[in-house]
Amino acid sequence: MEKEKTYKAHIMLLAYHGQGHINPMVQFSKRLASKGMKITVTTTLSNIKAMKKASSSSVIFESVYDDATEGGVGAPGGFQGFLDRFEASGSTNLAQLIKKQENSGYPIKCLVYDANIHWASNIAKQFAIPGAAFFTQSCAAIASYYPMHCDLSDKSLPFPAFSMPGLPPPKLPYLPSLGAVTGQYSPIIRFICKQFDNIENAEWVLFNSFDKLEEEVVKWMSNLWTVRNIGPTVPSVYLDNRVENDNDYGFNLFKPSTEVCMQWLNTKETGSVVYVSFGSAASLSAEQMAEMAEALKQSRHSFLWVVKPTEIKLPTNFVEETSEKGLVVAWCPQLEVLAHHAVGCFISHCGWNSTVEAISFGVPVVAMPQFLDQMTNAYFVEKVWGIGIQPKENEENVTSAEEIGRCINGVMNGKEIKKKAKQWKELAKEAIDENGSSDKSIDEIISWILAL
Ligand code: UDP
């Protein structure tokens, strides 16, 4: 009979719904498991259904909210309705799951929750277990929201805001169910600022980032909370290769055209392809789509463009007219694509995961942020890390084909940009490798939990 596995302690992680949230949380759980921890990842049922079974038997998945039956963001009440139902069912189910473990050999020793699920900290408190808030955005993006939170909660900022000169105010997506704008802040900003509710109760505040990447912001933020960077949360095979069988996220919103993409890339020369993707949530406007199509058509470079089924259709005949140098797919295996030698440039919306992946693979970026934290990430890509160029927009927030073309060439021919991208890639690897800053942070958290 197989000997029962023993663990150092049991940690529960609560992941928010959506590709950009689940990926870093599951990756963090694999890291913890590789260091001898038993892990339960809890999230919505639809997240779990979309997940490939984890390669490690130390990671168990449990649903705390049946959004498949009760309704996701598309059900009545829209996004707000989803949030309300998730909190109502999720908090009860999460409490039950923690309770169930109390008398097992491995009671829960720490609850790591996505900061968007701010109510989780009350559950941790209820069971007297420490909570750790996990932000799936950059330290800088969170720093940029903090003054708004202080304003909204009538607190004064304890010290000057983190300075990002020239950063434009964030563009905001429109989510009608969150209600109308009242007062100075839009409902989406109010929703984002809820992440700071109860944050002072969190023993640790975690980020999918690494110290050198956001050195100054981390210093600034450490005056507020016990901040630790535990990233990049990119699968280990691409970085330090110390986590067994960790070669993908195991989660895909849409079915990726893996074979088609990889076979096509295999026919291309090193550094010759422009990869274009705007992540899982953003959709280009019809005007922007037309300009992007024109830019790619005019460019002398080959391109791989992800156009999701939820996005506006491409101009008529675009695929046929560009078939010699272009490939359009509904979803791709982005990690494999970015890791491929043929990819020389990433036109990205600069979602935080895509940004961290571009850094980890050393792929330079044409930064076209669509909303919220993407704008801070794009600012850092160009102005702080020097690994890309952000094209200019006109008054209607559209970037012309000509401007996109200028930036593609700037990146494809940019020696300094490519050099910086390579340097950051090495620093990303170093951070998560044995005794790197993120590895040390993970060990520190584990030691702290074991000493409880
Ligand atoms: N992604 C993917 N295939 C695609 C497009 C995106 O696997 O065709 C993945 C990408 O690797 C990243 C995630 O989807 O991990 C998108 O997260 P990000 O934070 O960049 O953007 P969001 O979708 O949250 O806006």
TrEMBL record:
GO terms for molecular function: quercetin 3-O-glucosyltransferase activity; quercetin 7-O-glucosyltransferase activity. Its EC number is 2.4.1.-. Pathway: Secondary metabolite biosynthesis; terpenoid biosynthesis. Keywords: Glycosyltransferase, Isoprene biosynthesis, Transferase. The keyword Transferase applies. InterPro entries: UDP_glucos_trans, UDP_glycos_trans_CS. One of its GO terms (biological process) is terpene biosynthetic process. PANTHER family: GLUCOSYL/GLUCURONOSYL TRANSFERASES (PTHR11926), GLYCOSYLTRANSFERASE (PTHR11926:SF1375). Belongs to the UDP-glycosyltransferase family. This is Glycosyltransferase.
